[in-house]
Design goal:
Elements (H helix, E strand, L loop, with lengths): L9 H4 L23 H4 L1 H26 L23 H32 L2 H16 L2 H27 L20 H7 L11 H7 L1
Length: about 220
């Protein structure tokens, strides 16, 4: 690009996907030449193996219960014979009880801690939005009032994760068109772009943040 087209330093411009080397359009849709191919497909095959293992377990449980005329447990816990009455019967029963009901008892507090973790990990514009939502939920105080706003909060999380996923993908680099915040008239630098989580060919959005938001 010419001097009037961008304000980016030359050294920083060399790290851009548009100017660091030839652009392969197939990489934008997730296709990349790799050797050996098995290493490239390792994670996909692992996910398929986990899904197959899960389906096998559920089918085996269903078949076993039908053959022995057993009903499906109502609580769907790991240790079916452990209840609140067994909590003080020893350390082993205490651990079993919390394995069964930890999220049932402390799920809300766990979600609050994970929200704080997202804010601490990101420290950007979307972390500020998460902080406002956390304040809005905590302001309700009572569990019944929190339960009323919780579906809206879950809807917000689903929408914002999807939106940020498309930000991470960005526009295809094949047309060699840069983003408007990289033009000469825009007063944006790399730190501002990173803080706003804008798609960019130099400072690419960190997709690991979406994993934190998922939890």
């Amino acid at each position: 690009p010419g001097e009037n087209e961008t304000q980016v330093d030359l050294e920083e411009l060399k790290t851009s996907v548009l100017y660091s080397g030839p652009v392969d359009p197939a990489e934008w849709v997730g296709l990349r030449k790799s050797y050996p191919l098995l290493v490239y497909l390792r994670n996909n095959l692992l996910m398929l193996a986990i899904l197959a293992f899960e389906v096998t377990i559920y089918r085996h449980q269903e078949y076993y219960r039908c053959r022995n005329n057993l009903t499906t447990p109502v609580t769907k816990t790991i240790f079916h014979d452990i209840t609140r009455a067994h909590l003080d019967d020893g350390l082993v029963n205490c651990v079993k009880y919390f394995i069964n009901y930890f999220f049932y008892k402390f799920g809300l507090e766990t979600c609050f801690l994970l929200s704080v973790n997202v804010i601490g990990q990101r420290m950007d514009f979307y972390a500020m939005i998460h902080a406002f939502w956390l304040i809005a939920v905590l302001y309700r105080r009572r569990r019944k009032a929190i339960a009323e706003i919780w579906p809206k909060y879950c809807c917000f999380l689903a929408c914002i994760i999807t939106f940020q996923y498309f930000l991470c993908i960005g526009i295809p680099p094949a047309p060699c068109k840069d983003y408007p915040w990289r033009s000469g008239n825009a007063n944006f630098n790399s730190n501002i772009i990173k803080w706003l989580y804008f798609p960019d060919f130099i400072v690419r959005p960190n997709p690991v943040f979406l994993v934190c938001e998922y939890f």
